Input
Amino acid sequence: MPPLPDTLQIKIQDNILLVKLNRPNKRNALNDELILAIEQLFANIPAGVGCAILYGEGGHFSAGLDLSALTERDAVQGLHHSRMWHRALDRVQFGTVPVIALLHGACVGGGLELASACHIRVAESSTFYALPEGQRGIFVGGGASVRVPKLIGLARMTDMMLTGRVYPANEGLAIGLSQYVVEEGNGMKHALELAGKVASNAGMTNYALMHILPRIVDSAQDQGLMMESLTAAIAQNTPEAKARLEEFLAHRAKKVGE
Output
């Protein structure tokens, strides 16, 4: 993999990949260089990594698209630019490892699009969410129209874009923008605990949750149920699943709640 730019920094801790957005002077606004680096990284996850944590340096996760880097584009160029974002964020959502987004401060516009491509979102209490594109005369182009309504519903996203509504962390939790809210400064500790659990899962289970479950949800009921049956049959036939079930039946594995 070619070297990453300084705006995207990585570190491996045990089997967890820590991925840092590193443009704090720009509130981690996302420019083309950073989006292409995200695509490159998530297409080439290092061997042995079981989960990734994506977070931002400084006071914010990401304030969205770097509008100062926008150039005048015709319709075709704008289409290709949007599709570049789609390609990159698909690498996050449909990659080789689950991704936890650790949020704080602004999670706005393109930042929310990036976070919504992750599989788990942990928000510190300073987090706030918005889709300000409607007030700027533009429309979302990085996947928000597909991913965000699946988290919060069509009506809430429509309201966010029509009115510029801002959701603080606790309200974001209530409507589905995150799965966890923690005290300021405790986000990384909580994200690492979750990542350890995720990385300890059977590989086929994590693959199914990342790649197959979203397709089941998007399918007609009969197609979804068939995909579920096929996935269940494949998963239970893997050597890892057989070993884990044997441990459970022999009372060597923890029960739920222990």
In short: Strands lie at 8-13, 16-21, 51-56, 99-103, 106-108, 120-124, 128-130, 167-168, 180-182.
